[in-house]
């Protein structure tokens, strides 16, 4: 079931256990946007990015942006077995609903691990990826647990009496363990054949080491170190759009 608001491309995709809010803009090759914001990954978070791909890409692409479950306007159940795969299934189910087989994907922050999980599940469908300052593990476990707990405090009231156990399981499935990029084994990156543009992070949540780890291991990668301000921002924006246009024709 898809409930569209009159006169707009703002929509809700209903699936078992979740209601996923998404927006569409533009025409052309499809690109899925996965927003920053950690567990609060929602379309609105793009407004705080150095540049907003929802605005900048719709002139050349069919852009699909979404709120992840229990972020923004999306809602969903939570159980102790949920993890990265749960969110990626939402992403794939949305694309299936929109009858999009081949697509590109761009993600910032938590969007990095989502992209790697998408590649693990559906690499044959993905033409190219753009990874803006991926989150990654580098002596920052407590920061991610704290970020999760802040989000969990907001959703507990929606989840009923089982929420404590469910949220503890989700927390560990998302941010426990030792994987650098959380969602996939470290050596998975060496198997990726999809072209990838990597824009470097430089803070505790998005450590430079994680971006360099990706750029070093993914064979077909373009690495951009400076991209947030002034001339570097405009140059990087052009590079990203040119990269997507080049690979959209494949």
Please indicate the percent range of residues in DSSP E strands (runs of 2 or more): 15-25%
Calculate the terminal CA-CA distance, rounded to whole Å.
32 Å
Approximately how much helix is present in the residues?
25-40%
- Spans of at least 5 consecutive residues with low confidence: 1-8
Q: Indicate the overall shape.
A: globular
| Strand element count | 10
Rg is 17 Å
Mean pLDDT: 93
Give the ordered list of helices and strands: EEEEHEEHEHEHHEHEH
User: What is the overall number of helices?
Assistant: 7
Q: Helix- and strand-based class?
A: alpha/beta
Biggest sheet descriptor: 10 strands, mixed
In short:
The chain has helices at 53-57, 84-97, 111-122, 141-159, 163-175, 208-217, 230-248; strands at 2-4, 10-15, 18-25, 30-34, 62-66, 75-76, 103-108, 126-132, 196-199, 221-224.
Structural descriptors:
disordered N terminus; 10-stranded mixed beta sheet; 250 residues; alpha/beta
């Amino acid at each position: 079931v898809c409930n569209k608001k009159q006169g707009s491309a703002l929509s809700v995709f209903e699936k078992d256990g979740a209601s996923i809010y998404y927006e569409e803009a533009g025409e052309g090759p499809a690109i899925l946007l996965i927003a920053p914001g950690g567990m609060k990954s929602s379309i609105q978070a793009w407004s705080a990015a150095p540049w907003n791909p929802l605005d900048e890409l719709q002139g050349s692409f069919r852009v699909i942006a979404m709120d992840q479950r229990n972020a923004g306007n999306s809602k969903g159940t939570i159980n102790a077995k949920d993890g990265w795969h749960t969110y990626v299934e939402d992403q794939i189910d949305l694309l299936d609903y929109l009858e999009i087989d081949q697509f590109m994907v761009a993600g910032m922050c938590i969007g990095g691990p989502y992209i790697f999980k998408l590649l693990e599940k559906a690499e044959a469908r993905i033409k190219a990826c753009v990874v803006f300052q991926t989150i990654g593990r580098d002596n920052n476990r407590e920061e991610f647990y704290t970020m999760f707990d802040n989000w969990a405090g907001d959703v507990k009231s929606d989840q009923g009496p089982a929420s404590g156990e469910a949220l503890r399981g989700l927390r560990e499935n998302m941010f426990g363990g030792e994987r650098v990029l959380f969602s996939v084994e470290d050596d998975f990156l060496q198997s990726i054949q999809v072209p990838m543009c990597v824009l470097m992070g430089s803070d505790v949540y998005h450590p430079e080491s994680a971006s360099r780890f990706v750029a070093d291991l993914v064979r077909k990668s373009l690495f951009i170190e400076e991209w947030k301000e002034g001339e570097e921002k405009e140059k990087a924006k052009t590079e990203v759009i040119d990269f997507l246009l080049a690979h959209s024709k494949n």
